Amino acid sequence: MFNNLGNAKITVISKLALFVIPGFLALSTTLISCTSTVSNTDTGITKAKPVEAKTITFKTKILRIGYQSSGDLVRVRGVLEKRLQPLGLKVEWSQFAQGPQLMEAMNVGKIDIGSVGETPPIFAQAAGARIIYLAGRRLGPNSGKGSAIAVPKGSPIKTLAQIKGQKVVFQKGSASHYFIIKALEEVNLKYSDIKVLSMPNVEARGAFIQGTIPVWVTGDPHLALVEKLYGARVLRDATNIGTPGGYYIGTREFTKENPELVRIILEEIDKNGQWAEANRKEVAKLIAPVLKIDLPIQEVISSRANYRLRGITPKLIQSQQSVADLFYKEKILPKKIDIKEALLTPQEYAAITPETLISEK
């Protein structure tokens, strides 16, 4: 804003420059403005007012991002490519069966960023992974409806309490792992009261359809498919299960070296989420052919999905710590972990978090 000013002229030139730093190639985006002409109508004096130049340095030329077999709307719409390619960055996508496999890939340096549920980063941190919580997924009125404890159509099991002693299939270390523990508490059962078999959703679905899995803890798109096509019955969905929800996770090195890039990534993901929640039928039309799912089923999946992001807050981290503490209490984690060790400083979060994420308390 200018007060008591005449015509103000600002010239901005944007340019890209590549330069070499030992060990890596850095990409610098520089916004340059030499002067702006400011006229004071009271004195008649015209002054040249300097405008601060801003330099953004990306210490990478490739963004490696992981997604799960359930699909990723950000990838399908190409929003990151549209924003980053003009800046000289390439986006590489890698698909994983579920969150634990994605976190393992991050731990060994194959990807920089990925989206998972609340549980995988806890197990990754316990294994010594150098990860950072970047942003959380916003919860909504349909949160939890896309995950469930399900049984085949003809199963004699009618209530959740009846799964005692049964073989229960889910991917250990995934969001389903936390879900089943919390659900068992509601019916006064212990984790030791069930027979756990760990299996990724992509493998378990066929076995469930064939009737060899008596109880399956799963989520969309697999849940919607077995519900609509094979009459699977839901014993309990994850509504009001008390989860902090999913997260975008990044490696510590990538995040600390590229704060401006992380901010751009989160901004584009959240903008994409805002569009998705206002256009759920369009989302279904885009995702259905990618996952090879009938459109009516994908519309159900899209209707109960959450797409927006939220910033990392003390309240959210306290909730995530309670999840980690539960796994330790159940002797599933070998040691107690401190979620704060996987966080940035408040100043660093301010640098990577877009305003649209900060707004949620």
- The residue ranges in which pLDDT falls below 50 over 5 or more consecutive positions are 1-53
Estimated radius of gyration = 24 Å
Shape: globular
| Biggest beta-sheet profile | 6 strands, mixed
Structural class: alpha+beta
What percentage of amino acids are in beta strands?
A: 15-25%
Total number of beta strands: 17
Our measurement of the CA-to-CA distance between the termini, rounded to an integer number of angstroms, reads 29 Å
Number of helices: 14
What this model shows, in words?
By secondary structure, the chain is of the alpha+beta class. It is 37% helix and 24% strand. It has 14 helices and 17 strands. The protein has helices spanning 73-77, 79-84, 99-107, 120-126, 175-186, 201-210, 222-230, 252-257, 259-278, 280-291, 295-303, 314-329, 346-352, 355-358; strands at residues 9-10, 13-21, 24-32, 36-39, 46-49, 54-58, 62-68, 90-96, 113-116, 131-137, 147-151, 167-170, 195-198, 215-219, 233-237, 247-251, 309-310. A 6-stranded mixed sheet has the order 8-7-9-16-10-17, with helices on both faces. It starts with 8 loop residues before the first strand and ends with a helix. The relative contact order is 0.14. The model is unreliable at 1-53 (pLDDT under 50).
